[in-house]
Design a protein that fits this description.
about 270 residues, Nucleotidyltransferase, domain 5, 2 domains, five-stranded mixed sheet, about 55% helix
């Protein structure tokens, strides 16, 4: 497959990212770009880099050679370990075909998971407490993916799941809440959806996280399937809308970072 054999060529953001190097942050990265070095191959092909000693240049060369090999292998665990969490969005191009959008619902308590929704860009899979929310089954399904994409998942969904199932995720994770903030979209997911024109199915439009707790409580107390169906629909809307949101805001953030380099400004 062309994508698999040319993964790095398909990942412009990663191939132009130097924050993967030890001690390099955005300002130093922009200095590298301003010197005409715009890709890993540019860096490796340069005899020297302004602001770097020969020793550091040699060290960075070795790191980039390893990174190129790991990118060809689509080794998510490697990039999870060498990139700061706030930089995982730069891996979107590389792993988007193997990413899963994730969202959870709870019964109102921090560890009380009721529903977990997964969306691979084509199909949704829902895990419901009392039906199929089984640790082995869920972790087997999650292991199929090389990247997690959530909204506010770094603060809530992922820590809750890790505690609930007793595991530690070691794949790249993009929390779109912080990507949105960096491009000027603030507030909760529903507010951002309205701002950019995303709609939800009529049956659950306007529902909130509090409504999700209420639906679960009513399902448990009455046994009426309508409450559970609406809860599942609400969760599905959360995960399905994350895909167009990611497609919109991640390129915007990359353009903002690159424009900051061209203009000599970085915030």
């Amino acid at each position: 497959m062309v994508y698999k054999s040319s993964a790095l060529l398909s990942s412009v953001m990663l191939d132009q990212s130097f924050v993967i190097l030890p001690g390099v942050r955005e300002r130093k990265e922009q200095c590298i770009w301003s010197g005409g070095v715009h890709s890993w191959d540019d860096f490796l092909g340069a005899s020297r880099i302004k602001g770097l000693s020969g020793v550091r240049k040699a060290l960075f060369d070795e790191r980039l050679k390893v990174a190129k090999a790991r990118a060809r292998e689509e080794d998510g665990a490697f990039f999870h370990s060498v990139l700061r969490r706030q930089d995982h969005w730069r891996l979107y191009d590389l792993f988007r075909d193997d990413a899963v959008f994730l969202d959870i619902e709870t019964d109102g308590y921090y560890g009380g998971v009721t529903v977990v929704g997964l969306y691979d860009g084509k199909d949704t899979k829902t895990f419901v407490r009392g039906f199929n929310l089984d640790r082995t089954v869920f972790l087997r399904e999650l292991s199929r993916y090389k990247m997690l994409i959530t909204f506010n998942g770094a603060s809530f969904d992922l820590p809750v799941l890790e505690r609930y199932f007793g595991f530690k995720s070691e794949v790249p994770h993009i929390d779109l809440r912080f990507v949105c903030q960096k491009v000027g979209l603030v507030g909760g997911l529903k507010a951002i959806e309205r701002e950019i024109g995303l709609r939800r199915r009529r049956e659950v439009e306007g529902f909130t996280g509090e409504d999700a707790v209420y639906l679960w409580q009513m399902w448990k107390s009455t046994g009426e399937r309508d409450y559970l169906e609406k809860l599942v629909w609400y969760n599905e809307e959360d995960i399905i809308n994350l895909q167009p949101l990611a497609k919109k805001v991640i390129p915007q953030l990359w353009a903002k970072v690159r424009e900051g380099a061209r203009s000599g400004r970085f915030r």
